[in-house]
C-alpha cells in the first residue's frame, strides 16, 4: 500500500514512519509534505493509495487541502485520513464531508494505526483508479474519427480528456487558452456540431458507462471518478444522455451477463 504523509512537523512525520514500520503490513511511504500546498502537489504527482493529513498546517491547512481535493476531484482512488486533536474534531467532521474516509486522534499509536488500516486497507486495495490515459485515449479517438484539425477545438477536446474528473467551467477553460468564452463556445459548436457542455457531459457519461460495466465500482464511486460530486446531478445528466438512470444501466449490464 502506497502512503503519503502530510504534516508540518518533521518529528511527527518521523514518528509516524517508525510506528508504521512496526505494523506487519505492506505499507510504503512514497512521499512526505510539510504543508497543504506541497501536499496537493504530491497528491497530483504520486496518486497514493492512502494519504494521512494533519489538520493544522501553514500555507494551506488540512481542511483547505480537502476542500481543494473535493472541488478538483483530485486522486479519487486515494483514501484520505485526517490527523486531529480532540479540540479539532469539528474540523475533522468537515473534512469528511469533503471526502475524507476516516480520522485519527493524536498522539498516534501502533494500535490506532492497526485498527485504521484494518478498516480501510481492503477498500484501498480494491478501489482501483481510472486508468491514467483513458481520457486522453478517448479524446484522441474522437479527434481521429471526426477528423478534427482545428487547433483550438483540438486543444479543448484534449483538455477535457485530461481534466474530466475536475470541475470544468467554460470560462476557466477559455481563459486557459487566452480566448473569450463566446468565441470558444461558437467555434466548438461549429466544428463538432455540439456544444462544449454537451460534449463534456457525453464524454463523462461514456466513461461512466465503461466503469459501471466493469462491475468494479459503485455508482457513487463512478460519479466522483468522472467529475460529479453530487450523485443526484450525476444521475440526472446520465439519464439525459442515455435515456436511463445509472441504476437501470447497471441492471441491464447484469442481465446481459446472466444471459451469456
Summarize the structure.
The chain has 260 residues and is an alpha/beta fold. Helices cover 60% and strands 10% of the residues. The protein has a 5-stranded parallel beta sheet with strand order 2-1-3-4-5, with helices on both faces.
**Proportion of strand residues:** 5-15%
**Elements, N to C (H/E):** EHEHEHEHEHHHHHHHHH
Discrete helix count? 13
Distance from first to last alpha carbon: 36 Å
Tell me about the largest β-sheet. 5 strands, parallel
Pfam family, one: HTH_18
Protein name: Response regulator
Domain Response regulatory: 2-121
Keywords: DNA-binding, Phosphoprotein, Transcription, Transcription regulation
Describe this structure in words.
The structure is a single chain. The chain has two domains: 2-126, Rossmann fold; 134-259, Orthogonal Bundle (Arc Repressor Mutant, subunit A), CATH 1.10.10.60. Helices cover 60% and strands 10% of the residues. The chain has helices at 10-21, 36-46, 62-72, 89-97, 110-126, 134-146, 151-163, 170-176, 181-192, 196-214, 219-225, 231-242, 246-259; strands at 2-6, 28-33, 50-54, 79-84, 102-105. It has a five-stranded parallel sheet with strand order 2-1-3-4-5, with helices on both faces. α4 (89-97) links the parallel β4 (79-84) and β5. Residues 2-121 form the Response regulatory domain. Residues 154-252 form the HTH araC/xylS-type domain. One of its GO terms (molecular function) is sequence-specific DNA binding. The modification 4-aspartylphosphate is found at residue 54.
